[in-house]
Amino acid sequence: DGIGAFAVSAPFAEVNGVSEAGRVYLFYGRGPADEPWPNNINAFDEADGIFYGTEEGHRVGFRLGRAGDINGDGYDDLAIGAPLYRPLNSSGAPVSLGGRVYIQWGSPSD
């Protein structure tokens, strides 16, 4: 839509009792007809979307990055990093190295 959106990360946030799962608050752009952003934002109340980590220590949102238009739909996408994500091996134990990148797809409304 040509109106800038932004994200705020809280990688050390506790989510539903899970320590350092992480959280990313998504704020869609505001056009001329929209109310301007307040001087102080309560992320829980004002965010248009919230991306939550689910596992202890994964620190979702530790890095955020503009990903360009990955899926070719004409809208920029957001990369959300979780550097301490540890996938499980075939025995069900966490591997020593991991990490994960989540993609938040852009759209005409954000």
Primary descriptors:
single chain, 110 residues, mainly beta, three-stranded antiparallel sheet, 28% strand, flat
- Give me the Rg, rounded: 16 Å
Tally of separate helices: 1
Largest sheet, strands/sense/barrel? 3 strands, antiparallel
Spatial order of strands in the largest sheet: 1-2-3
Count all strands and give the number: 6
Order of helices and strands: EEHEEEE
Q: Low-confidence segments, ≥5 residues, pLDDT <50?
A: none
**Shape type:** flat
**Average pLDDT over all residues:** 86
* First-to-last CA distance: 7 Å
Question: What structural class results from the helix and strand content?
Answer: mainly beta
Helix content: under 10%
Secondary-structure blueprint of this entry?
Layout: E1 6-10, E2 23-27, H1 43-46, E3 49-52, E4 63-68, E5 77-82, E6 100-104
Antiparallel strand pairs: 1-2, 2-3, 4-5, 5-6
Give an account of the 3D structure:
The protein contains 1 helix and 6 strands; from the N terminus they run ββαββββ. β4 and β5 (77-82) form a beta hairpin. The radius of gyration is 16 Å and the shape is flat. It has one helix spanning 43-46, and strands at residues 6-10, 23-27, 49-52, 63-68, 77-82, 100-104. It starts with 5 loop residues before the first strand and ends in a 6-residue tail after the last strand. The model has no long low-confidence stretch (mean pLDDT 86). Strands 1-2-3 form a 3-stranded antiparallel β-sheet. The protein is 4% helix and 28% strand.
